[in-house]
Amino acid sequence: MSELTHFDSEGNAIMVDVSEKPVTTRIAVATGKIYVCQEIFERIQRHEIAKGDVLGVARLAGIMATKRTSELIPLCHPLPLTKCEVNFELKEAESALYYIEATCLVKTDGKTGVEMEALTGVQIALLTIYDMCKAIDKSMLITDVHLVSKSGGKSGDFRWK
Question: Domain count of the chain?
Fold first, then answer.
């Protein structure tokens, strides 16, 4: 394991100095799921949720969140993102379980990675689905949020096993 870089020699939290790092293309992909009841699942498919296009609004919320990550997570650097995609797959699992899988891809040319932006985008997209559907059923479950892959930078490439 490498050293934790967000602390100085006295244990104080610091923003990492990236000024000497080279600019490289950085890409990160994160994913997560929200389990919903059959009624929510079917109403989203049919575009029958009273608040509007659930996945369209969640997509925009996820994109907006990636751009505001440094305002939400104290030690993140503000980054000029060059690409962001948020996509959804509606899936029926075994035992009549229904879920929506969100995936967020973020890209930049910079001195630090975009993993936190991708993870933030997924979380906010899933929370938006919850918000838009909670009048129907509050027992939705957000789970399995994780980094799928990242490329670029000194630490090299990563892929979830």
Answer: 1
Residue 4 inside a domain? The answer is no
Whichever domain contains 139, its CATH number is 3.30.70.640
Among 160, 64, 69, 58, smallest CA distance to 119 is for 69
Quick check: is 65 in a domain? Answer: yes
131 is catalytic: yes
Domain annotation covers residue 31: yes
For 43-85, how does the pLDDT look when each residue is reduced to its tens digit (9 = 90+)?
999 999 989 999 999 999 999 999 999 999 998 999 999 999 9
- CA–CA separation, 149 and 157 (whole Å): 7
Q: Which burial class, exposed, middle or buried, applies to 92 when counting CB atoms under 10 A from its CB (0-12, 13-18, 19+)?
A: exposed
Low-confidence ranges of the chain (pLDDT < 70): 1-4
Exactly one of 17, 53, 131, 157 is catalytic; name it.
131
Q: How far apart are CA 1 and CA 127, in angstroms?
A: 32
> What's the pTM value of the predicted model, to 2 decimals?
0.92
Q: Is residue 37 part of a domain?
A: yes
